[in-house]
Design goal:
Blueprint (H helix, E strand, L loop, with lengths): L4 E5 L4 H13 L4 E4 L7 H6 L8 E4 L2 E4 L1 H11 L11 H27 L2 H22 L12 H10 L2 H7 L5 H4 L1 H11 L2 H4 L5 H16 L3
Parallel strand pairs: 1-2
Antiparallel strand pairs: 1-3, 3-4
Helix pairs in contact: 1-3, 1-6, 4-5, 4-6, 7-11
C-alpha cells in the first residue's frame, strides 16, 4: 500500500493532521512528503491545481483534496477498522455539519491570531473565543463530540489543540485552559489515542516556528 498512497503535507498543518490521524486510525501505510510552502513542489501544483494547497492525498495516482473530504474517503475505503463516521444517517449528517462548522469558523480567526496585531488580532480573539464557546457547548459532558466514540468532529478539531499554546503566547490569549476545561479534558482524551499522539506536533515546536515566522517574514516582534 505504501507505494500507492502519498500524502503531500506540512508538519504544522492542523488540516494535514486530520488526514494523518485518519490513516493511522485505519492502520494504513503511506508515504509522507513534507512540502515547503514557500516553494511548493511541482507534484503539489499538478495534483491540486485549483487551490494549490496541502494536504493532498494521492491514491493510485489520483489526487483527493481538502482534508475533511480525505478523511471521509479514507473511512469509506477501510470501513471495517475504527469507523470515523457513524452508521446512522442522522448522526452522520450531524458529524458533517460540525466538521463543516469548524472549517468555516476557525481558519480565518486562528490565522489572524498569529499573523495580525492590534485591532485585527483583538477581533480574531473574540471570534475564536465564540467558536470555543460553541464547541464547548456542543461537547457538553460527552467523552467525544459524537458521544463515546472518537470520530470525524474530533479529528476535525484536535489539530488546533497543538496550536493553543501559540495562540496563548502570541496573541495573549491566556484563557483557553481556564475557561474551557471540558475542551482541554477532551483534548487529553484524544491524545491517549496512538493515532493522535504520534501525529500532533510538540506545542513548543509550533510556537517557535510561528514566532520565527512573525519576526523574519512578517516583521512582527
Amino acid at each position: 500500500m505504501a507505494e500507492e498512497i502519498i500524502l503531500l503535507d506540512y508538519w504544522a498543518s492542523m488540516f494535514g493532521m486530520r488526514t494523518r490521524i485518519a490513516l493511522e486510525e485505519k492502520g494504513v501505510k503511506y508515504e509522507y512528503r513534507e512540502e515547503d510552502l514557500s516553494n511548493k513542489s511541482p507534484l503539489l501544483l499538478e495534483m491540486n491545481p485549483i487551490h494549490k494547497k496541502i494536504p493532498v492525498l494521492i491514491h493510485k495516482g489520483k489526487p483527493i483534496c481538502e482534508s475533511i473530504i480525505q478523511v471521509q474517503y479514507i473511512d469509506e475505503l477501510w470501513p471495517d477498522t475504527n469507523p470515523i463516521l457513524p452508521s446512522d444517517p442522522y448522526q452522520r449528517a450531524q458529524a458533517r455539519f460540525w466538521a463543516d462548522y469548524i472549517d468555516k469558523k476557525t481558519y480565518v480567526p486562528c490565522k489572524s491570531l498569529w499573523s495580525e496585531t492590534g485591532e485585527k488580532q483583538e477581533a480574531a480573539k473574540m471570534e475564536f473565543i465564540e467558536v470555543l464557546k460553541t464547541l464547548d457547548s456542543e461537547l457538553g459532558d460527552k467523552s467525544f463530540f459524537g458521544g463515546n466514540e472518537f470520530g470525524l468532529v474530533d479529528i476535525a478539531f484536535i489539530g488546533f489543540y497543538s496550536w493553543f499554546r501559540t495562540y496563548e503566547e502570541v496573541a495573549n490569549l491566556l484563557t483557553i485552559v481556564e475557561k474551557f476545561p471540558k475542551l482541554i479534558s477532551w483534548a487529553q482524551r484524544c491524545l491517549k489515542r496512538e493515532s493522535v499522539a504520534k501525529t500532533l506536533p510538540d506545542s513548543d515546536k509550533v510556537l517557535k516556528s510561528i514566532s520565527d515566522h512573525r519576526k523574519t517574514v512578517l516583521g512582527i516582534d
